[in-house]
Design a protein that fits this description.
Strand order of the largest sheet: 1-2-3
Distance between the termini: 86 Å
Oligomer: single chain
Number of strands: 5
Number of helices: 69
């Protein structure tokens, strides 16, 4: 078979496909006969060919029988071995190739084979780009690795493989290695892991590499079930090696010392794994998190089954012992006082399950005695982590039955040691362990009270009754008092240590101290229950609840023994106050007595016969029970009458009454769900709907200005609301909210299930709170507040709400609904807000006290918490001092009484520890911005505070509360500038937001929505003034404020978020923002507009930021063309004259600033000219107040220009204005003419200008054009006598008459045009919209153009085409719609301002005049052709056609030779 030409490969004939080499070979074999003598030659030729092109790396990876069969078909090479295993010929071939290559390069075969194997291994483990590093191989990689390792093993057996070189080379490519490959090397006995670890010089690198790869194994074990088995084998083998070598017995002294670094590496890896586990367990990890899964995987290394018989038991025990020690001493940062306070949270049930699992796996290999001994050793020799030690103790006593006695023995040892040597550490350790073990309950360990009595309550106590020992004991107990929980102090008081009479004073001092501490914690020792578990970690319950538990427990004991419990008999004698005031009332609750006596009746009778119940109390109990029975009979009669009434509404009322009866008695709580189901059924009949389950209501619309309900809807909602309020009050008389059962939630969910009823209920809610809130009684407010909480709890069943007004509509959830409803319109609104919020929050804290913190936050709207903070801090001075009390009773008990002291209730809530903890939640914090928004809503005239009180409150809030507070807590980090910035941004947001519902009744609607409270603005002025003084002081010390005022930085940042004004909506938003910015500037000291700069002893002024703000933004919202409003103009000049007082030469600085205005911000000067009649008195007064000299020259020039214009127009003796800039003089003339509004005056003025001041004509033409645009964009009926178009025509005619080129005004935006440089200043005089609309004025004047313009002005054609194209672009972009929309305001110009008609007129004008233009008019026209092609292809064709015809005509023109 010929090879063919390499340069030109043969092309297959049509219809034939190109065949692969293997197919050609197969075909050749079939065609030729087999000849034995050719076999040897064929093999030699094949070997020679392979040697010429061989690559050892590829050879190692590709010597695989399967691969050979697929490609080369050298059947003899494969030797018919099993798939995936290289045969004898393959191996021999590799050996020969290696030997030949080694001889060529002069390297030993063993080293070359090692290098080649590593290189092949690196190639095999290579990760594709974009993939993450893995610790396991895929199937294809494993197949190739198997072949590679087989070859390496063969080379090793032949003595052609250098293990040392292999180890050195493999560490060079460690970053590319996959851990499974290293494990395979170890398992196939090619290179052991230990030998590999020994070969690296840097142990830390090895440790990090092993740890990181084992982490990857853990991750892949979790992510793939298919790889679980392989990963498990790898994991187990490495752990066995680590434990075997790291914790082996005494090392063999004959071994090389350098090789002992392997145990160090093994221990370091295990230590790193343990550190990761403990650091992860130190945080609250979620069960579904990756960290949780990783820790769970790592814990497998502590399973004994992982090691089996491959690791000796003594090595495994040393490993587990080392691990347990490291756990107990990990990160010992907690102090003893922390452990005393927090150990209740470290019980077995509260400890992370992963940590208890770790402990239990470590405990398996030890006996309980060994564990306690090890614990004792660690405690005596190390500084420990108390959380881990005490959680270990809990696990010990819970999981090991023998641990109880061993712990007692340990405690005895510690106590003996403590009192023998007065060792405080042993004493502390013993108390902590005793309390921790007791937390697990009496079934696991004796209660702490019993242990304390045994240890110190008898003559044989550890203290031995010696004075020194007693002093040591009571000093220790006294030191615990500030940190320990109340139940432990109760134990110490009720079961005190045995003390001789002569040392009784020591005991009394401690009891006095403990009782004082209990009083501070609001815990009464007298209210302690009979069966109260003082060793329990649970929170103390309310006394009446504890009494109920004592009654139930006593009845249970009585049932079992048939006798009155000893505890009850002792309490009737020794604890008579508690027995009489708590226990008996809880026992003698009136009820309907059963026909056959139950356990309670028999127990009561036994106590009566034992004279343990006073006769009058027992008589009252029987009477109350009889009354309850009569009431039950009456209720049954009423129910029967109601059922027979037949009226659906009356039947509903009857069922609601029945619900109330069930609510009273907790024994009936099981029947609540059934009764509410009956009520729901009755409600269907009342609403006239048999089934509304299919009704979908996506949104509920509520209009605050018209909340109207049908008669039937109002009746039903009133019945339901009344019933809810009554049920709440009745149930609160007998039980606290957390003991009332689930009836409120069921009731509200039932209402939410009736979808047509829910909008009516919310509307009625709004009527009551918003319109009638000031008339609601306390009971109504309580009921509505609780209803709001449960509606918020059921928010998943409440559709989205739409709050509508005449001005806007806002969507919100039911959570945000309540804060929108509660307002501060009047004094009574504050009272309603405080009542509603205090009731809602107090109820929530009590109702959900046993629930998780997340449940509480889910049910309690954060907006109510913010509002109650605002109102309480505002109304009650006491709340402004930091005070937190862990009260036993929540304020709900006081709220449900007939007369409520709301101030007391609010302050009681405020001092609650739970409430204060709630305020630390980020979503519940009343931040500085929140406070400002609430304060801005308050109308000073209707405020509950007087002006003086409000000012004091503002100053307290700003300077004591929010200014020093950190930003994390919602404050300003002590930064006054930051406080000002937040206030300004909040004020802008408040002004720009739509009027909320409570503003609708106001007839005063400001331009941008809301007006900011004047007192808040006063505080802003105070802070800005203080910053100004600081700025002035800093400038005296050499600093400068080159960065400008922070106000302009805020404005710039906010404007950047509004977009570039490409849409009408963006432009309107920008306009509103700028109006607010201007009002803020006007309310601040005018000096904020001026910045100072100090060079040496000389201070200068600059206004860079203000100039930029005016040129970019402020001029675009001015009500007058080419001038700012008079208020901001006067404000600037006042600031300038104030700031110059700090300069050495004030007059010079004023002149410099005003001179800079001519080029940098000319609109300030044109504004000064316009408003000079108002500005002059202000300027004169302020200047003369400080100086006796004349006004600065530049101010005098403005006055002169104004006077020049007045005299020029009135034809009086005209003043010289040579020292005035022409455009300023022109502006003066323009404003005078505009104010007098007489066209005859314009004509006279133009006539005079032709003679004397023709340099003013061009600027005057510009101002006239702006006036024309103003008449289009902002028509003013008061100016109808002035014809802006006619005035422009008059000025244009005058310019044409004087042969003055005016085209430059329409080329101002053309940057490359140098000739218009002195008129560039005019661009800064007009709003950006006016400059863009110049093409409109150009073609509005087309009727007044001189016909000779095309010949006289070379650039006229270029300008005319450019203006036409820009006009078309304006029309396409929709900018001309502003003129169309406002044309109706001025009917006189209606026909002249039709944009489409003007475009048509312009197009016809150009098409008519282009053929008449001379050749020089086409200069530069080529750059406009691209735009022409996009917007008007016919115009482009006309330009090209006429330009070409003129060029062709030049070709035939006779040349001019002389």
């Amino acid at each position: 078979m010929s090879a063919g030409s390499a340069d030109s490969p043969p092309v297959p004939a049509p219809g034939r496909r190109r065949r692969a080499l293997s197919e050609l070979l197969v075909g050749r074999v079939n065609k030729q006969k087999y000849k034995p003598e050719r076999e040897q030659k064929l093999q030699e030729a094949a070997v020679h060919l392979l040697k010429c092109y061989q690559n050892l790396n590829d050879l190692f990876l590709e010597v695989d029988s399967t691969q050979c069969k697929k490609t080369l078909c050298f059947s003899n090479l494969s030797d018919h071995e099993s798939p995936g295993v290289p045969g004898t010929h393959s191996k021999s071939f590799v050996v020969s190739a290696l030997q030949e290559q080694a001889s060529k390069i002069g390297v030993p075969v063993g080293i070359l084979s090692a290098q080649t194997t590593v290189s092949s291994l690196q190639q095999l483990c290579q990760v594709p780009e974009g993939s993450q590093q893995a610790a396991l191989l895929n199937l294809e990689q494993r197949k190739k690795l198997s072949s590679l390792l087989d070859i390496a093993q063969d080379l090793l057996e032949r003595g052609l493989f250098c293990r040392f070189s292999f180890c050195q080379e493999i560490w060079k490519v460690q970053s590319s290695l996959v851990l499974e490959a290293v494990w395979e090397l170890h398992s196939k006995s090619i290179i052991g892991i230990e030998e590999l670890l020994e070969s690296h010089s840097d142990s830390q690198i090895v440790v990090d590499w092993l740890y990181n790869n084992l982490c990857l194994v853990c991750e892949q074990m979790e992510n793939s079930n298919q790889e679980m088995e392989v990963a498990g084998l790898i994991f187990s083998d490495f752990m066995r090696i680590f434990v075997l070598r790291g914790f082996q017995k005494i090392p063999d002294l004959r071994r090389n010392v350098e090789l002992e670094k392997v145990p160090q590496i093994c221990v370091a890896v295990l230590q790193k794994i343990l550190t990761y586990i403990l650091s992860a367990l130190a945080t609250e990890i979620q069960e579904e998190s990756s960290t949780f899964k990783a820790v769970k995987c790592w814990l497998n290394i502590f399973k004994c089954s992982v090691y089996g018989s491959m690791v000796p038991p003594d090595s495994l025990q040393r490993f587990f012992s080392y691990t347990l020690t490291q756990i107990l001493i990990y990160n010992p940062v907690l102090k003893v006082c922390d452990a005393i306070q927090r150990q209740k949270d470290w019980s077995f049930a509260k400890t992370c399950p992963l940590l208890t699992t770790l402990y239990r796996r470590l405990f398996v290999i030890f006996s309980p005695k060994e564990l306690i001994g090890h614990l004792q050793e660690v405690l005596e020799t190390h500084e420990v982590n108390w959380q881990l030690v005490l959680s270990c103790v809990s696990t010990l006593v819970v999981c090991l039955a023998e641990a109880q006695q061993l712990i007692k023995d340990l405690l005895a040892h510690l106590m003996i040691k403590a009192f023998e040597s007065y060792d405080l550490e042993s004493m502390i350790t013993a108390f902590l362990i005793a309390r921790q073990a007791a937390l697990e309950g009496p079934s696991v360990f004796i209660p702490y009270a019993d242990w304390f009595k045994v240890s110190f309550g008898n003559v044989s106590g550890y203290h031995g009754c010696s004075k020194k020992a007693l002093v040591f004991l009571f000093k220790f107990l006294s030191d615990l008092v500030p940190f320990e929980a109340p139940q432990y102090m109760k134990i110490h008081i009720l079961h005190p240590p045995l003390v001789p009479v002569k040392y009784r004073s020591l005991l009394m001092e401690y009891i006095t101290l403990a009782k004082t501490r209990l009083a501070d914690l609001k815990v009464a020792i007298e209210d302690m229950g009979l069966y109260e578990d003082l060793s329990s970690a649970r929170e103390a319950v309310e006394p009446h609840c504890q009494a109920e538990q004592d009654v139930e427990k006593a009845i249970q004991v009585f049932e079992h023994t048939g006798k009155i419990p000893v505890t009850v008999m002792e309490a009737s004698i020794f604890r008579k106050p508690y027995y009489v005031s708590r226990f008996l009332p809880a026992l003698l609750i009136p009820r309907v007595l059963p026909e056959s006596p139950d356990s309670r009746m028999v127990f009561i009778d036994s106590l009566r016969r034992a004279d343990k119940i006073p006769a009058n109390l027992y008589s009252n109990y029987l009477q109350a029970c009889s009354a309850a029975e009569e009431r039950q009979l009456q209720d049954q009669v009423v129910k029967m009458e109601t059922d027979n009434a037949g009226e659906p509404l009356e039947q509903l009322k009857g069922e609601l009454e029945e619900l109330r009866n069930l609510i009273i008695d907790p024994a009936n709580y099981d029947a609540l769900s059934a009764q509410i189901a009956v009520i729901s059924e009755k409600l269907k009949f009342v609403l006239g709907s048999s089934d509304d389950s299919g009704i979908e209501i996506s949104r509920i619309h509520l209009n605050f200005s018209s909340l109207k309900l049908g008669q039937q809807e109002q009746k039903v909602t009133d019945v339901l609301l009344t019933s809810f309020c009554q049920n709440l009050i009745v149930s609160s008389k007998y039980n606290s909210p957390d003991s009332q059962g689930s009836w409120p939630s069921l009731f509200v969910k039932m209402i939410c299930g009736h979808r047509p009823l829910l909008p009516a209920l919310l509307a009625r809610f709004c009527q009551l709170i918003y319109h009638q809130g000031e008339c609601l009684t306390d009971i109504h407010v309580l009921g509505l507040a609780v209803l709001a909480i449960h509606l918020n709890e059921s928010k998943a069943f409440v559709p989205e709400l739409v709050l509508e007004t005449s001005a806007y509509a806002k969507t919100c959830s039911v959570t945000a609904f309540w804060e929108n409803l509660l307002t501060y319109r009047t004094r009574d609104s504050f009272s309603l807000c405080i009542r509603f919020c205090v009731a809602a929050i107090s109820y929530s804290l009590c109702k959900f006290s046993s629930q998780s913190h997340d449940v509480l936050c889910n049910c309690l709207p954060a907006g109510l918490i913010k509002k109650v903070q605002f109102v309480v801090l505002r109304m009650y001075l006491e709340s402004r001092t930091t005070c937190q009390e862990d009260l036993v009773d929540l304020p709900w008990r006081n709220l449900s009484s007939p007369s409520v002291d709301w101030k007391k209730a609010a302050l009681c809530l405020w001092k609650q520890k739970k409430f204060q903890e709630l305020l630390k939640e980020r979503e519940c914090q009343l931040t500085y911005k929140d406070w400002l928004l609430f304060e801005m809503e308050v109308k000073p005239d209707n405020d509950i505070l007087s002006d003086a009180e409000r000012q004091y409150f503002h100053q307290w809030a700003l300077y004591q509360q929010y200014l020093p507070e950190s930003s994390v807590a919602g404050g300003c980090d002590g930064d006054l500038e930051k406080a000002c910035a937040i206030l300004i941004e909040t004020a802008v947001d408040f002004c720009l937001r739509p009027n909320s519902c409570h503003h609708l009744d106001s007839s005063e609607l400001p331009l941008c929505g809301n007006t900011v409270n004047r007192d808040v603005l006063s505080r802003l002025q105070e802070m800005v003034l203080e910053l100004e003084l600081e700025r002035w002081r800093s400038s005296n010390t050499g600093s400068s404020d080159d960065e400008g005022h922070f106000l302009f930085r805020i404005f710039k940042k906010r404007l950047q978020t509004l977009g570039n004004g490409s849409t009408v909506g963006e432009r309107l938003l920008r306009h509103q923002e700028l109006l607010v910015y201007k009002s803020i500037l006007l309310g601040l000291p005018p000096s904020v507009l001026i910045s100072t700069h100090r060079e040496g002893w000389q201070r200068s002024l600059h206004c860079k930021d203000f100039f930029h703000f005016v040129n970019k933004e402020l001029k675009n919202i001015s009500p007058r063309e080419c001038a700012l409003a008079h208020d901001i103009t006067i404000h600037f000049f006042r600031g300038l004259l104030s700031a110059c007082l700090n300069c050495r030469e004030p007059s010079k600085e004023v002149n410099l600033i005003l001179t800079a205005c001519q080029t940098q911000c000319p609109i300030i000067l044109s504004s000064a000219v316009l408003w000079w009649s108002r500005l002059e008195p202000v300027v004169q007064c302020q200047w003369k107040r400080h100086f006796q000299t004349a006004l600065p020259q530049e101010l005098t020039n403005i006055a002169t220009c104004r006077e020049f214009a007045r005299t020029f127009v009135s034809s009086e003796a005209v003043l010289s204005s040579n020292f005035c800039t022409p455009w300023i003089s022109a502006a003066s003339l323009y404003f005078i003419i505009h104010q007098q509004a007489a066209q005859e005056i314009m004509k006279t003025t133009l006539k005079n200008l032709e003679c004397e001041r023709e340099e003013l004509l061009l600027p005057l033409f510009f101002f006239s054009l702006m006036s024309l645009l103003s008449s289009y964009l902002a028509p003013n009926d008061g100016m109808s006598s002035l014809k802006p178009l006619n005035i422009c025509a008059e000025v244009l005619g005058c310019l044409e008459k004087r042969k003055i080129s005016w085209l430059v005004l329409f080329q101002l935006t053309k940057k490359e045009n140098v000739s218009n440089g002195r008129y560039q200043v005019l661009l800064h005089l007009a709003p950006d919209q006016y400059i863009r609309m110049l093409p409109f004025t150009f073609y509005s004047l087309v009727a007044y153009f001189d016909e000779d313009l095309f010949n006289r002005e070379q650039a006229f054609l270029y300008v005319a085409v450019d203006m036409y194209l820009k006009l078309v672009q304006l029309f396409v972009a929709g900018e001309t719609s502003a003129i169309s929309a406002k044309a109706g305001f001025s009917q006189e110009h209606c026909k002249q301002v039709d944009p489409l008609e003007l475009i048509t007129k312009a197009r016809l004008f150009l098409l008519r005049w282009i053929p008449r233009c001379p050749k020089r008019s086409f200069s530069g026209i080529m750059e406009l052709l691209a735009t022409c092609e996009e917007f008007d292809a016919e115009m482009k064709a006309a330009l090209l056609s006429n330009q070409q015809s003129l060029e062709d005509a030049d070709l035939y023109r006779e040349p001019l030779l002389f």
